[in-house]
Each structure stands twice: as C-alpha cells, then as structure tokens.
Amino acid sequence: MELINKTIELVKQKLEGTESGHDWFHIERVWKLSLKIQEKEGGDKLIIELAALLHDIADPKFHNGDETLASKIVNDFLTEQNVDSEVIQKVIFIIENMSFKNRNDAPENLPLELKIVQDADRLDAIGAIGIARTFNFGGYKNNLMYHPDIEPKLNQTKEEYKKSNGTTINHFYEKLLLLKDLLNTKTAREIAEHRHQFMLQFLDEFYKEWNVTF
Q1: Do the Cβ atoms of 79 and 88 come closer than 8 Å?
Q2: What are the angstrom distances between the C-alpha of 124 and each of 73, 79, 147, 183?
C-alpha cells in the first residue's frame, strides 16, 4: 500500500497542470476501472495497479513525441522504491505497448495485465467522459469541431495518427467507435456496450442540431 501511495504522489506531481483529459483524474479512473476488471478477470494486481497509475506519466504527445521518457521515469522511480526488477520490466512493457497508435506494432500473446490496463484506458476514452475528453483535447489543439467537407481518415498509420489535426467529430470514426471491438476482456466489453451506444446517440443528436433538422 505504501508503494501505491508513493506512486500516486509521483503521478499527481508529474501531471499537475496537464491538459484535463490526461490529468490525475483520468489516471484515477483508469486505475479504478483496472481494479474492477481485475476482480473478474484475474492477473497480478500489483503490476496492474502500477501500470495503470503510471501509464501516462510522460505521454509522448505532451513531450515532443518522446516515447522513451515514460520508461525512464518509471524505471528510475520503481528502482528507487526497491521494486523487483522483473516487476519493473513488466510494468514498462505494458506502458510501451498499450497505446492505440502502437496497436499494429505490439507483440502477439500480450499478458493479461496489459490487456486489463489497456481495456481500462480505452473504456475511459468512450462514453460520456470519452466525449468530453475528445472535445477538450480538440479545443486544446485548436482543431475544428466539425466540418462537413472533411472526411475521417480511416486505417491511419502510426505516423499519420500522431500528426493528425482532423476535426473532433472525425476522431469518433478514426478511434473512439473502433475501441469497443478492440477490447480484450469480457468484463470490459460488457462495460463498453452502453458507452458505445451513448456515443452513437450523441452523434445522431449532433448531426440533427448541426443540420437544423427536427
């Protein structure tokens, strides 16, 4: 418990002032979702908790695209806390391989712990909070909310996804609506059903209001 508390302190410190879709409260939700999934699906609880808490400690999109910084911070911190080296490597493996943009590069036969944390992170990207986070980040990047002449770019490569400055509505089709079918665990898929439908209802309402149709 002391290790978890110290990890929480580190995360709150590192993410202070971060864009609110990727702040401590996002981490807290992913952590809690991970624990709920772990209760049903199993897996090493310590590894799951540490990976959930540390998964966005240095998100590359807020650090000039640096995909090595998070692993260095995690390794240094957990080593200082005298965490077993095997546990540290498993946590780092999860952090390095769980993101949506890296899904095509991830190894096969991923460990259950990664699947659980990945599912929790993806669940927080859909539903009501997912909608709010998407529009918040779109505003942060000064992207258009919607443009009827700009089509979604499907099946983007990792580099295309990283450089994308499309509309916020297009992001639903480029990522959010895909997540339900990319979930790993039965528990997460059950949670996702309502959140996915809520996004579809939102989009339906959005287009009606945009087009002033009743």
Answers
A1: yes
A2: 24, 29, 26, 12
Last residue of a domain, one of 100, 135, 167: 100
At residue 15, the 3 state secondary structure works out as coil
Question: Cα angle vertex 121, ends 104, 32, to 5°?
Answer: 150
**Residue pLDDT, tens place only, 48-87:** 999 999 999 977 666 666 678 889 999 999 999 999 999 9
User: What is the residue range of 95's domain?
Assistant: 1-100
* Burial group, residue 47, by CB count within 10 angstroms (0-12, 13-18, 19+): buried
pTM: 0.91
* Phi, psi values for residue 11, rounded to 5°: -65, -45
Q: Is 94 found in the same domain as 6? A: yes
